[in-house]
């Protein structure tokens, strides 16, 4: 079985988006290089530096399913029915998207809570990894002991306020192993395994 990985770009002050949910400068590094790559959707190419591309190819190559919350699903309109990473998305919601135009045809599943979403994602992913988006859903997964690794794409910017990486209330006290560090341009990847 693959790992459950909490992943997102994050500011120096711990935010994954501004108060209006937009990433602002947190995503600038997705276009600051000369190496083109995509995750699951070839229509969404990125241009990053070579170290960033190497890290992301390895990381994304292991991902089978992504878990996100309804807020992100709504902001992105469900990525037009195409998973942004992996082959499937599990959305945590009490309000299934019955009027979503891709309902029933896109590889999206709706689950009532975070534990059910992670369990379903792991079933679908098999031996591949599951990513969980940062914010409230990621924080809930971490607090529930469902996360194996936390990966920060640390961006050298302070947002001042916004959506916290670990969601409302913050995480519990959890010990991690020393990080694996990959330095890109305008982003540093820090991968922390939960200490067993």
TrEMBL record:
<feature type="domain" description="Bacterial bifunctional deaminase-reductase C-terminal">
    <location>
        <begin position="6"/>
        <end position="180"/>
    </location>
</feature>
<protein>
    <submittedName>
        <fullName>Dihydrofolate reductase</fullName>
    </submittedName>
</protein>
<dbReference type="InterPro" id="IPR024072">
    <property type="entry name" value="DHFR-like_dom_sf"/>
</dbReference>
<dbReference type="GO" id="GO:0009231">
    <property type="term" value="P:riboflavin biosynthetic process"/>
</dbReference>
<dbReference type="Pfam" id="PF01872">
    <property type="entry name" value="RibD_C"/>
</dbReference>
<dbReference type="GO" id="GO:0008703">
    <property type="term" value="F:5-amino-6-(5-phosphoribosylamino)uracil reductase activity"/>
</dbReference>
<dbReference type="InterPro" id="IPR002734">
    <property type="entry name" value="RibDG_C"/>
</dbReference>
């Amino acid at each position: 079985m693959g790992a459950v990985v909490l992943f997102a770009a994050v500011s120096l002050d711990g935010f994954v988006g501004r108060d209006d949910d937009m990433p602002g400068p947190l995503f600038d590094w997705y276009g600051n290089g000369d190496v083109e790559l995509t995750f699951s959707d070839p229509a969404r190419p990125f241009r990053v530096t070579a170290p960033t591309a190497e890290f992301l190819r390895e990381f994304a190559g292991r991902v089978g399913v992504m878990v996100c919350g309804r807020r992100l699903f709504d902001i992105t309109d469900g990525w037009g029915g195409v998973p942004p990473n992996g082959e499937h998305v599990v959305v945590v919601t009490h309000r299934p998207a019955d009027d979503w135009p891709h309902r029933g045809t896109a590889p999206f599943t709706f689950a009532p809570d975070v534990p059910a979403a992670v369990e379903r994602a792991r079933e679908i992913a098999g031996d591949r990894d599951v990513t969980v988006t940062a914010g409230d859903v990621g924080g809930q997964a971490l607090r529930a002991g469902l996360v194996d690794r936390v990966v920060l794409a640390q961006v050298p910017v302070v947002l001042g306020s916004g959506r916290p990486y670990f969601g409302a209330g913050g995480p519990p006290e959890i010990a991690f192993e020393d990080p694996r560090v990959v330095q890109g341009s305008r982003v540093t990847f820090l991968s922390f395994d939960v200490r067993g």
